Amino acid sequence: MNHTIEVQRLRQGNEKAFVEMYHYFNGKVFNFLVKKVRDAEAAKELTQQCFIRIYQYRESLSDEHPLEKQVFITAKSVLLNHLRMEDRKKERELKYTQEQFPEGASATAIATNSFETNDFLEKVVLHLSPIRKQVVLLKLHRGLSNKEIAEELSISVKTVENHITKAHHHLREIAASHFLLLLLLLRL
C-alpha cells in the first residue's frame, strides 16, 4: 500500500489503518524503548504512550515524511519526557537526602556513605579495560578535563568521550543489577 494513502487513512481516523500501523510498529518501538530504558515494564508503558500520542495527534501526520520516521520521532519524544521525569525524581530524592544529612550532620554517616560509594566505584572500575580504567581514574580522582586526559594518554578527545560513555553504561548496568539483587533480598 502506498505510504501517502496510509497516512491519509490514519489522519482521517480509519481504525483499521491505525490497528495495522500499531501491529506493524509495536514490536519495533518496544525494542527501541527497552534498549533505552532497560526495563520491560517501563518500555511497555512508553510504547503505549507513543501510540496513544500518535492517535491523539493523527491529524498532524505528514505526507512528506515516512510513517516509520514519524512513529520513531514520537517514540523518542515520549522517551525524552520519561527521562526528564526520572531526572526530576532523582533531583527530589537528592534534595530529600540532603535534607536528611544537612551540613551539620554526623560526619560518620556522611563518611560511611562516601566510603561505600568509593568502594563500589573501585569494584566497578576493576571490570573495565585497562585504558578505560585509566580514563575513568584520571577523570574521577584527578579531576582532569577530557582534553587533559586526551593529552596525557596521547589519544583523541573523542576517544576519551567514548571511553567515559562506555564506562558510564557499564556502571549503570552493574548498579541496576545490584539494585535488582537488593530488591530481591528485601522481598525474602
Secondary structure topology:
Layout: H1 3-11, H2 15-37, H3 40-56, H4 67-100, H5 107-126, H6 130-140, H7 146-153, H8 157-187
Helix pairs in contact: 2-3, 2-4, 3-4, 6-8, 7-8
Keywords: Sigma factor, Transcription, Transcription regulation
Pfam family, one: Sigma70_r4_2
Family: Belongs to the sigma-70 factor family. ECF subfamily.
What features would you describe in this structure?
The structure is a single chain. The chain is mainly alpha-helical and 188 residues long. The chain has 2 domains: 3-89, RNA polymerase sigma factor, region 2, helix turn helix motif (Rna Polymerase Sigma Factor, Chain: A), CATH 1.10.1740; 109-187, Arc Repressor Mutant, subunit A. Helices cover 81% and strands 0% of the residues. It has 8 helices and no strands. It has helices at 3-11, 15-37, 40-56, 67-100, 107-126, 130-140, 146-153, 157-187. Belongs to the sigma-70 factor family. ECF subfamily. Pfam families: Sigma70_r4_2. GO terms for molecular function: DNA binding; sigma factor activity. This is RNA polymerase sigma-70 factor (ECF subfamily).
CATH architecture of the largest domain: Orthogonal Bundle
- Can you give the helix content as a percent range? over 70%
Q: How far do the termini sit from each other?
A: 54 Å
> What structural class is derived from the secondary structure elements?
mainly alpha
Protein name: RNA polymerase sigma-70 factor (ECF subfamily)
Family: Belongs to the sigma-70 factor family. ECF subfamily.
Keywords: Sigma factor, Transcription, Transcription regulation
GO biological process, one term: DNA-templated transcription initiation
